[in-house]
Each structure stands twice: as structure tokens, then as C-alpha cells.
Amino acid sequence: MVVTKKFILEKSFNGAPRDDNFKLIEEQLDELKNGEILVEAIWLSVDPYIRPYSNHVSPGTTVMGTQIAKIIKSNNKDYKEGQKVFCSTGWRTHSIINPSTLGKDKMPSFYVLPDFGNLSCSLGLGVLGMPGNTALFGFLNICNPKPGETVVISAAAGAVGSHVGQIAKSLGCYVIGFAGSDHKVEWLKEVLKFDAAFNYKTKDVTAALLEAAPHGVDCYFDNVGGEFSSSVIYRMKNFGRVSVCGSISSYNANPKDLPKVPMLQPAIVFKQLKIEGFIVSRWSDVWQNGIERNLNLIKEGKLIYPEHITQGFENLPQAFMGMLNGENIGKVLVKV
Ligand SMILES: NC(=O)C1=CN([C@@H]2O[C@H](COP(=O)(O)OP(=O)(O)OC[C@H]3O[C@@H](n4cnc5c(N)ncnc54)[C@H](OP(=O)(O)O)[C@@H]3O)[C@@H](O)[C@H]2O)C=CC1
Ligand SMILES: CCCCCCC/C=C/C=O
């Protein structure tokens, strides 16, 4: 009989997540039925969406999330023990899955990991997974960047932002990043070779953009929202494009009482801006192609993909709270 550890949402979030929102429990799993597989988590992904999406789940539910797991028992002829899979089974160490009953229309929730060669399978949660596809498709398809254009990225030292910045650099764009510490700013400039980077906690955003992009911004990849983004949008050039990927500055706010920011319509109208939000699942039909394209960028030496790793399943809540507080450079992961 297999026992899984899992985290449940003990209490709904109210503001920033705290220890007492989470409870670690054990659960005995049933015997495998025909068509089912048993998987054991190796890596768990720690993602910002867990915070806003959890507003819609009831206390007692397993905390949502994705993982890379190993098949340790199979009652399904199409899946073999030892294969590594990506699955969306939440914060748990062991899960029973029936691959044939999973929905296929929205976000990919289960697949056997493609061959990454010598690279770590953990990349399937980051640069070769959902955040990687978010960066690739969300930037290229919505911002439509051209060589020589000026690109601004918020949360630029994180998993998605750092990836977008490197794609923009490889296209010959002038890249400006904003992040929340001097250490991150140095990393963006020295390691990723951004043309300019600023600490948004200590530097006024409008002043920074007047300095680094006096003629304005062509493309803005927005991970943050709020007042920060209003400031960037008022520095866009005519016909600028904004890809609204995330709004992390509001994720801890009560959805019924969101912060007020300067209205955007004057900038949108008079600069004729195109502003488009997206959820990466819109590219689920080309998901594996996105992974291949990012794998090729890695093989060509065009992508650096740091991982911010916390050891131990029990430390998932700390890793999650740390990510929301900006402790990471690159992708946040927990190694079981
Ligand atoms: N639309 C989609 O389909 C998807 C959207 N996303 C979004 O992309 C964004 C980045 O995700 P991901 O790369 O996984 O996470 P990151 O690796 O970027 O980690 C989150 C970062 O957000 C920054 N942050 C936290 N609070 C604030 C704040 N109040 N203001 C500004 N920055 C803040 C912190 O960096 P710092 O030190 O710089 O503050 C932190 O490191 C998120 O908004 C996420 O929701 C991600 C995947 C898919
Ligand atoms: C169960 C996987 C859900 C992934 C959602 C990804 C979209 C993220 C949006 C904002 O962060």
C-alpha cells in the first residue's frame, strides 16, 4: 500500500500566503486499476499563478501545481515503469493517474517528457515547459519584436522574464529589465547582457525610462501590472505593443478591492497602442514545438536558465512564499 504526502489548502489565502494556509497530511492510495499508473514526484514547480487561481478553490483541496514524476508502477500498456512524465497532480509526492481520462482541450496536464539529452528533467517545469512556452509564444506572437526595437521587461530576473530578455537580445533588440534588487540588476546586465536594468524598488520607473529609452518603448512584456506598468505604458512609442503576461503586484490583493492606478486610455488612444493579455494554454496545440524551439536555443548557447532550488517536499510553502517575495533568480523548484 502506497502512502502519499500532500499539502492541502488549510485556509483560503487572505493577503500574502502564510504558513497556516498550508497543512501537510498523508493519504493512503488505492490499488492500481486497469489503465492506471502510479507516479512518484521528483521535482515540483513553484509558480505565481497558484496564488490567484487558489482564490477559486475550497479549503481542504490539494494545493494546485505541476511536477516531473517517475512512473513507479504501470497497469497501462502505453506507459512503462521508469519513464518520466510531466503532470498536473498538485503538491503531492505520489499520484495515481489514468492518462486516457485526462482532458485534452486546455493546458497540457500530462505527457511523457521529451528527450532532453544530458539536461536535467527539471527543465520540463521551466525553460522546457510552461514558463518557457509563456516566454517564447507570449513575447514573439504578441509583441512581434523587430531588430533594433526597445523592449522593456518587468520581473526580468524571473523564469519568464529572463527568458524573454534573452530572446529579445538574440533578435537584436535594445533590452531594459526591471527587477527587485541590486543583485538581480547586476545579474541582468553582467550575465544576460541586458542593455540597461533598474531596481524598481529604489529607482523611479519613469526616470529610469527617460534615461535608458529617451525616445520611448516599442514593446513591453508585462509580468507585474499595477502602477509600475502604467508608468511604462505612458513611455511607449506610437504603435507600441504590450504583452500582458502577469499581474503579480496584485496577486495578494483582495480581488474585490484591487489597487487603483492611473488610467491608461489616453496613452492607448493617442499612442495607438496594442495591449493584449494571454494565457499560455492558447498555444497548447504547438506545445511540444515550443519545447523543441527552446531546446534548440539552449543547444545554440542562446539561453541561460538558472534554477532556484529548495530541497525537501516539506519546504514547498516556504519556496512558494519566497518566490512571491522575490527571493529567486530564474525558475523556482522544489526537489523532493
Ligand atoms: N499568462 C500566462 O499564461 C502566464 C503568466 N505568468 C506570469 O508571469 C509572471 C512571471 O512568472 P514566473 O517567471 O513564473 O515567476 P518569477 O520567476 O518571475 O517569480 C516571480 C517574481 O515576481 C517578482 N515580484 C513579486 N512581487 C512583485 C511586485 N509586487 N512587483 C513587482 N515584481 C514582483 C519577484 O521578483 P522581483 O525581485 O523582481 O520583485 C519574483 O521573483 C507572473 O506574473 C506570472 O503570473 C507565468 C506563466 C504563464
Ligand atoms: C494547472 C496549470 C495551470 C497553469 C496556468 C498557467 C497560466 C498562468 C497565468 C498566470 O500566471
From TrEMBL:
Pfam families: ADH_N_2 (PF16884), ADH_zinc_N (PF00107). SUPFAM superfamilies: GroES-like, NAD(P)-binding Rossmann-fold domains. Its main location: cytoplasm. CDD domains: leukotriene_B4_DH_like. One of its GO terms (molecular function) is 2-alkenal reductase [NAD(P)H] activity. Transmembrane segments: none annotated. Residues 18-334 form the Enoyl reductase (ER) domain. GO terms for biological process: prostaglandin metabolic process. It is an enzyme of class 1 (oxidoreductase). InterPro entries: ADH-like_C (IPR013149), ADH_N_2 (IPR041694), ER (IPR020843), GroES-like_sf (IPR011032), MDR_fam (IPR045010), NAD(P)-bd_dom_sf (IPR036291), PTGR1 (IPR014190). It comes from the Eukaryota. Its EC number is 1.3.1.48, 1.3.1.74. Keywords: Acetylation, Cytoplasm, Fatty acid metabolism, Hydroxylation, Lipid metabolism, NADP, Oxidoreductase, Phosphoprotein, Prostaglandin metabolism. GO terms for cellular component: cytoplasm. It is found in: Cytoplasm. The keyword Heme does not apply. It catalyses: 20-hydroxy-leukotriene B4 + NADP(+) = 12-oxo-20-hydroxy-leukotriene B4 + NADPH + H(+); 4-hydroxynonanal + NADP(+) = (E)-4-hydroxynon-2-enal + NADPH + H(+); hexanal + NADP(+) = (E)-hex-2-enal + NADPH + H(+); decanal + NADP(+) = (2E)-decenal + NADPH + H(+). Monomer or homodimer. Belongs to the NADP-dependent oxidoreductase L4BD family. PANTHER family: PROSTAGLANDIN REDUCTASE, PROSTAGLANDIN REDUCTASE 1. This is Prostaglandin reductase 1. It comes from Sipha flava (yellow sugarcane aphid). The gene is Ptgr1.
